[in-house]
Amino acid sequence: MTELMTAAQMRATEEAAIAAGRTTGLALMERAGRAVVAAVFQRWPALSEGAHAALVLCGPGNNGGDGFVIARRLRDLGWAVTVQIFGDAARLPPDARRMHDLWAASGPVAPLGPCEGGVDLVVDALFGTGLTRPLPQAVAEAVARPSRGGDQVQRVAVDAPSGLNLDTGAIPGGQGVFLADLTVTFHTAKPGHYLGAGPAVCGQLVCADIGLGGSGGNLAGSPPAAGSLRLAEPVTADTGPGLRVFPGAAIAKLAATGHKYDFGHAVVLAGGVGRGGAGRLAARAALRAGAGLVTMLCPPAALQENAARMDAVMLRACRDAEAFEALVDDRVTALCLGPGLGVGERTRSLVAAVCARRAGARAGRDPAVVLDADALTSFAPAPDALFALLHPRCILTPHEGEFGRLFPDLALSARAGMSKVEAVRHAAARAGCVVLLKGADTVIARPDGAASLHAAVYDRAVPWLATAGAGDVLAGLIAGLAAPASAPELICVAEAAAWLHVEAARAFGPGLIAEDLPDMLPEVFRRVAG
Ligand SMILES: NC(=O)C1=CN([C@@H]2O[C@H](COP(=O)(O)OP(=O)(O)OC[C@H]3O[C@@H](n4cnc5c(N)ncnc54)[C@H](O)[C@@H]3O)[C@@H](O)[C@H]2O)[C@@H](O)CC1
Ligand SMILES: Nc1ncnc2c1ncn2[C@@H]1O[C@H](COP(=O)(O)OP(=O)(O)O)[C@@H](O)[C@H]1O
Ligand SMILES: [K+]
């Protein structure tokens, strides 16, 4: 797992390394520029042979400095290089100024404008982590300008496509952004490479080591640290063959042995007649995920319909919150409610009853509670009434619509300038439990600000997961993974569930419907166990 650094954290890391005498700004810039050239040659081997033509666009800060290094390096390799600058070279920061002067000793620098002659490569070194506001008009025009050379022109962005905010993944001001085929960032990726519009404008992402040391590799077996942000991605253990620390450590049945009750009893509360599909999807996912037992509770009138559709999942009639109390014992270790449950008072009272359950004599901790869909929407008129019921073993799994109903001030339409990561951190602190906000960029946060980003983007993009019921499966998957006695803490379970969900969708491929997801899990587990 990689720690994702904000622009400010990246600046602080660089300053600390320089202050400690481990490196210099110039050395970092030289390595950054060379790393971009190396990544270009790796992506387009034809460019590494013979001489070609490049247009290098340099900005007013250190991103521009990287551009001058790239220009010099390409020229030394025999390329014809055109360099254009936005701003005044005399006002460049010292390291960038030095790199400008090295280039300018033997090559011209022109202001931004149309480039005479065709090129094979356009390098965007206009703005990187320092972009704080929408692109100036001249830059917006320059990044949108077609380069002569047609389809053969490759476009590489240094650190970020200019116009993209690397903390938020937003393009402030709307349209102006460089559309890259390849983006080369340094030390660690930044949140904006994975959030929002980031992946679509970065093209492909490569992260280059520039010698800043320990690049934030995170212990996958342990939860993320308070206030940190990590990318949920597979990590294989140094010891032992095959088994992945992530997500393997969160899949109890891959490691432990035991009785079915050791793997926990998950309970899914489902909706009434004709509305049971969502609950059935969640229940099947919980069972496939590894819960030792799964019971579905549904209104009496829906018993028959559910009985006709399920075998391994047990079924009980549950009229209301009072009946619920009589049906669950202290061997129930995970509960999932919301999908298809209906919006209103009955759901609110079930949520209250579920959240009030505490660890019984046999369990070491409170049961995990997954609240999704209608369990969230039922509290739209009074979100604080929900927050008052929640405890740290609860997890809310909203999509953006449900999130906005509970946290109107943090809704997508209201959080201008605030990243999805910050919004989910605020939400988790307010709710007092884990919050997972869904999407191709799924963000999970704990009340102390520990956060994780699961990205189904770049080569893991699965647009066919945008299908009705996929969220119900995710809720059940979390409950099933959280049920075993040996399950890790909830934020780690949620990271693994998000990853498995997307892997199941990738394994099935286009044409996927939600029913297919639980049944793809065995194939994904076999690969994890390797
Ligand atoms: N921090 C690090 O560890 C390293 C940074 N390097 C490079 O340096 C970059 C960061 O450099 P800087 O902090 O100088 O930032 P940038 O070069 O991204 O831009 C900074 C300048 O642009 C101005 N600016 C921001 N938004 C603007 C707007 N909309 N219109 C006009 N001006 C605007 C800022 O006031 C500042 O003067 C990185 O992206 C990377 O490319 C690399 O050289 C290697 C190491
Ligand atoms: N384009 C996408 N790429 C990856 N995952 C997606 C995409 N669109 C939706 N998803 C995932 O699919 C699920 C949809 O859940 P949700 O919106 O609750 O739908 P439903 O209520 O129909 O189940 C979430 O896990 C979400 O992260
Ligand atoms: K750039």
From TrEMBL:
SUPFAM superfamilies associated with the record: Ribokinase-like (SSF53613), YjeF N-terminal domain-like (SSF64153)
Record's keyword annotation contains Calcium: no
Transmembrane segments: none
Cofactors that this protein relies on: Mg(2+); K(+)
Sites where the protein binds AMP: K438, G439, A440, D441, T442, G471
Reaction catalysed by this enzyme: (6S)-NADPHX + ADP = AMP + phosphate + NADPH + H(+); (6R)-NADHX = (6S)-NADHX; (6R)-NADPHX = (6S)-NADPHX; (6S)-NADHX + ADP = AMP + phosphate + NADH + H(+)
Binding note for cofactor: Binds 1 potassium ion per subunit.
Domain YjeF N-terminal: 10-218
Binding-site list for (6S)-NADPHX: 62-66, 128-134, 159, 278, 340, 399, 472
One GO BP: nicotinamide nucleotide metabolic process
Single annotated GO MF: NAD(P)HX epimerase activity
Purpose of the protein: Catalyzes the dehydration of the S-form of NAD(P)HX at the expense of ADP, which is converted to AMP. Together with NAD(P)HX epimerase, which catalyzes the epimerization of the S- and R-forms, the enzyme allows the repair of both epimers of NAD(P)HX, a damaged form of NAD(P)H that is a result of enzymatic or heat-dependent hydration.
UniProt protein name: Bifunctional NAD(P)H-hydrate repair enzyme
